[in-house]
Structure prediction request, 975 residues.
Amino acid sequence: MAFTETATRPGPVDRLRDALPKLVLSPTVAIVAIFVYGFIVFTFYLSFTNSRILPQFGWVGWQNYENLFRIRAWDTAVTNLIIFGSLYIIICCALGLLLAILLDQRIRAEGFIRTIYLYPMALSFIVTGVAWKWFLDPGIGLEAVVRGWGWESFTFGWIKDREMAIYTIVIAAVWQTSGFVMAMFLAGLRGIDSEMMKAAQIDGASTFALYRRIVIPQLRPAFMSAFVVLAHMAIKSYDLVIALTGGGPGTATELPATFMYSYTFTRNQMGIGAASAVIMLMTIAAIIVPYLWSELREKR
Amino acid sequence: MSTAPSVETGATAAPAVENRSRLFQFSPARIVLYAILAIFCIYYLLPLYVMVVNSLKPLSEITAGGMMALPQQWTLAPWGSAWSTAQVGVEATGLRPYFINSILMVVPAVAISTLLGALNGYVLTKWAFRGSTILFGLLLFGCFIPFQMVLIPMARMLGLMGLAGSVPGLVFVHLVYGIGFSTLYFRNYYAAFPTELVRAAQIDGAGFFTIFWRILLPSSGPIAVVCIIWQFTNIWNDFLFGASFSDFDSQPMTVALNNLVQSSTGVKEYNVHFAGAIMAALPTLLVYIVAGRFFVRGLMAGSVKG
Amino acid sequence: MGFLDIKQATKTYGSVKVLHETNIAVEEGEFLVLVGPSGCGKSTLLNMIAGLEAITSGEIAIRGRSMNGVKPADRNIAMVFQSYALYPNMTVKGNIAFGMEMHGIAKPEREKRIGQVADLLQISHLLDRKPGQLSGGQRQRVAMGRALVREPDVFLFDEPLSNLDAKLRVDMRTEIKKLHQKLGTTIVYVTHDQIEALTLSTRIAVMFGGYVQQLGTPKEIYDNPANMFVAGFMGSPSMNLFPAKVVSANGAAAAEISLANGSAATIPFAGDRMSASVGRDIVLGIRPEAITDRDGADRNSKAIHIVEAPVEVTEPAGSDTFVVSQIGGKDVTGRFRADVAVKAGDVFPFAFNMEKAVAFDPESEQRIA
Ligand SMILES: Nc1ncnc2c1ncn2[C@@H]1O[C@H](COP(=O)(O)OP(=O)(O)OP(=O)(O)O)[C@@H](O)[C@H]1O
Ligand SMILES: [Mg+2]
Prediction:
């Protein structure tokens, strides 16, 4: 004789009860399906159409992508992203690590100092942009101030300089985010077994050797997270550029995010805008997907 | 997602007791150490200092090259101007209406996305079903996409829904793209919540919602604070969606501030710009100062600022 | 048909079968203990009885009513969890009342029952505290109180004592036993501690690898283990298991064993239950208390046999001394009186009580006799 679960048939009320969790989840699932994945597919599709000011559905194949790579501004945007992204990531990591190690030396008022290092993270990029825009402005900012102090030949006009403007974005972005990277590394440092540090000290390791040989190698996961976070932020950077330089002078500080926006909404080249968005998505996915994958697998 | 120990809890555990005495011992090396830390404090505080002092002095002092100096003549006029009379875009309304817009946008978006996130986290951990991990992964990926990818269809969709260029439209957009992180927080928190409690409540006869309200939610205070702060900061600070989906009268604070600063007509009133920037920063800064611990926890757990 | 009937119940997770066809009939008032090593499926079976895990195939019935598909709350059961699972945000009183509240029991009745249970468990003074303000033992009592007020048909316990320290565990064990004797309710109790199983139960199900290895009274399980796993798992120190050969000596069956010094010894079996097995290789099982010094041997036994064996180690344990010798390459422990003068290296007479010996097939590991 075989007994199975259907021995007593669940009534409609029971079935509703069993479906309740999925029912509760369903609005979210619907939202994500439409507004994330549906929209991704839509934009992907648009990137193959002749859309201009409005979405149109004339299929043009890879033409938008071909055009995109012929546009000088896109070339500038990608070059800028590479310069900005690599400097931003490297400087943030170096500064963050340095500050974390310094703060890990049993500092008095550590909490207070940490609060100061980290507060820019609470600000909007627009606020950061405004502050640095005027601070770096040669007419009233740093240059004018130093000259006022008597150093008449001092010049610091990067923000108005086509060649150097992109570095001002690095300066402001590093200012905003490096405290957060410091916090990530500090958490990593605090997670290291203190008995291992003691053992290394007993083994005669100098402080320098201790950090270089024992501690920093163990911060690999923190480096990974920091890299992913920073790369992701670099690719999405939009607000800061708008507020700090508006993409200028000329197109000197254009990034893919600002390029996409201006081609789609002000230059009415929606097909090309969509193609650039697709490329941004692909780049981010290449970084985020492996990261999420490994995080979720570990969690199980 | 980071499982790294929180900086906050780590901090209290870190100074080993046996090294207490070292704390008060000032060797030359430690003096250098403190000097470096102090220099960085100045570096991080400098822009804030610039914003504050220059928002309290007349424009002439700034243009005369006195940006770093304390005001010779203290004045609140730039604040008043930024708040109620400055020219933002076409009209001279000051930032006040936009500040209100931001509040009207943030409050419902945060409340709803937090509540939904809590329910989702509850289902994904305590009522997990086949495929729920994959579903969560898909949800999470949605947090990290470049939003440029959704701008075009979202603009159309808001039009279809009759929400284009309105504050409710912005609420909706932030809700949609905020759920992922809310769910992430609550899922990770509830994953550590003892399942035995849920089972005990089931045996006691509590149903799906009763368990949520009576058992899980009363213990969710800390994570709710983290989630609310995170959502509040992100939504308040957002610029891209605000710039893309709002009209002149539904602009949030960040967009209005940018318009104020970028407007090319007339003299540039730097002191007013700084006052406006502080106003835009104040709510999130206040949250950070009051509840910094939770703010940091949210950052670490979210690992990625949208 | 029993009071709680488990018929052909199985549980499969994905493609892994963690519980194989299980049949247990529990009578009203019985104290059934499920015991076995970690991961053997005890909790799974208990959760299936509770309705917290769906049953893959088979049936579980209480009072003759099939429970398949019935919600946990409607099974009239109560459960005490290993972590106690007290609701942290409610007071002790709130915890105990919650189940009754969910079942729509009126307030005066709730108050009355809480009072009774609190008296019974001596937790009246704790009623207004939160679980966080209680000691481990107190939490344990509250968890039991929460189960008791429900006046359920069946009590389910999942390792309720394993979070307590050793002393408290023994006290609470006694208390649970008293409670059972006083209330006479049916209990299914999961533990991996075989002492708890032996002391508390009226019947034990020993589980391993998703199978019930043996179901019986504590005495049956202890004296007549069905296989080598049960023999080794139940009892502390565990039963000695060592290779032997069944030979015929003076017309009766005897076990031939090899000692550490290379010599062999034969020990006759009690009775004639091994006569059919002459010539076979077996694994002989004898508990430590059936291997003693000469004077410590059980006077009622008619099958005490002396073997002179070299002593390898002695382990004084206060009341007894455990004496270890090697037989057939295995350590064999005997339980000697504490004041016997024996030391490592001696060749000493070991008294084997063969009435208590059991034999297993080395291949199938099942008991032969
Ligand atoms: N949700 C699940 N999915 C897959 N396998 C599971 C699940 N729950 C339990 N198992 C497996 O089922 C087997 C039995 O688990 P169970 O919890 O019943 O063990 P147990 O006997 O209670 O052990 P312990 O003494 O450690 O509590 C284990 O091998 C376990 O890995
Ligand atoms: Mg278990």
Remarks:
- Chain A touches chain C at residues 1-10, 14, 17 (CB under 8 Å).
